[in-house]
Amino acid sequence: MEFWNHIYEHFNPVAFNIFSIPVHWYGLMYVLALLSALVIAKWIVQKDAIDITKEQLDDYFIYAEIGVILGARLGYILFYDTHTMYYLTQPWQIFNPFIDGQFVGIRGMSFHGAILGFLIGSYMYHRRHGIPFGRLMDLVAVSVPLGYVFGRIGNFLNQELVGRATDVPWGIYVYDTLRHPSQLYEAFVEGIVVFVIIYLYRKRKAFEGELILLYGFLYGIGRGMVEFYRAPDPQIGYLLGEWMTLGMALSFAMAAFSAIVWVYFKKGTR
């Protein structure tokens, strides 16, 4: 347990270098997250005989990924970054991976921003190719959670989004403070638990689009609860007392919105 408590002292977040450019474990985990989501989607399409071809799925993946990347980055700038006006007035800097000539990668991504970008990209694909929007969303609801596990492991390996101070024996020392490994809590709750529930429920759905609403509710509740163990973003702090964070507020709002929309469509199926 002593080694685990001090694991960051023995771990290099850089996996390897390509010439002078460092490749971080976080980036590799992000690639694995995307690939796993695509593989699971193709498996579900075949297993459940969903009326979407693999070629259509490959095309949709491009739309969705562009939406995720743009939305995640812009969402971070709008919701979390302290230099919002700088980026809005100099938009070419939004995806600039260099600072003072040194490669640092693209830092700062927002999950809630990624959701908005993903929805826009998915809607554009739906409008262009005519595949029912709800069918696409339900497929995503089953495919994404396990990929999200890799994303949270990437956060853990990158030593970011750390937990709140604690005295539990499995805590991780971050800058001499023992903290909850909240990234791993999130990987389990938001990834594995959400996937299992949606996977088992998928054959019982009452209308197309129900699974994505279930995902929004489950993720919102799960993320909101785990936020109790996650330290707030330092540039924002707590919104209320010493417990309400921005991530918590956005997650519970997401859960409430999903529940309201679910009730609306559920009534329409009776």
TrEMBL record:
Q: Which residues bind a 1,2-diacyl-sn-glycero-3-phospho-(1'-sn-glycerol)?
A: R152
What terms describe the molecular function in GO for this protein?
phosphatidylglycerol-prolipoprotein diacylglyceryl transferase activity
Q: How does it sit in the membrane?
A: Multi-pass membrane protein
Q: Which PROSITE patterns match?
A: LGT
Localization (cell): Cell membrane
UniProt KW keywords: Cell membrane, Membrane, Transferase, Transmembrane, Transmembrane helix
Going by the entry's taxonomy, the superkingdom of the source organism is recorded as Bacteria
Query: Which residue ranges does UniProt annotate as crossing the membrane?
Result: 23-45, 57-79, 99-121, 133-151, 184-201, 213-231, 243-265
Which enzyme type, at the first EC level? transferase
Q: Which Enzyme Commission number(s) are on file for it?
A: 2.5.1.145
Extract one GO cellular component term from the record.
plasma membrane
What pathway does this protein act in?
Answer: Protein modification; lipoprotein biosynthesis (diacylglyceryl transfer)
Q: Does the keyword Membrane apply?
A: yes
- UniProt-listed GO biological process terms: lipoprotein biosynthetic process
Decide whether keyword Membrane is in the record: yes
Q: What does this protein do?
A: Catalyzes the transfer of the diacylglyceryl group from phosphatidylglycerol to the sulfhydryl group of the N-terminal cysteine of a prolipoprotein, the first step in the formation of mature lipoproteins.
Family, per the entry?
Belongs to the Lgt family.
The name under which this protein is listed is Phosphatidylglycerol--prolipoprotein diacylglyceryl transferase
> What species is this protein from?
Sulfuricurvum kujiense (strain ATCC BAA-921 / DSM 16994 / JCM 11577 / YK-1)
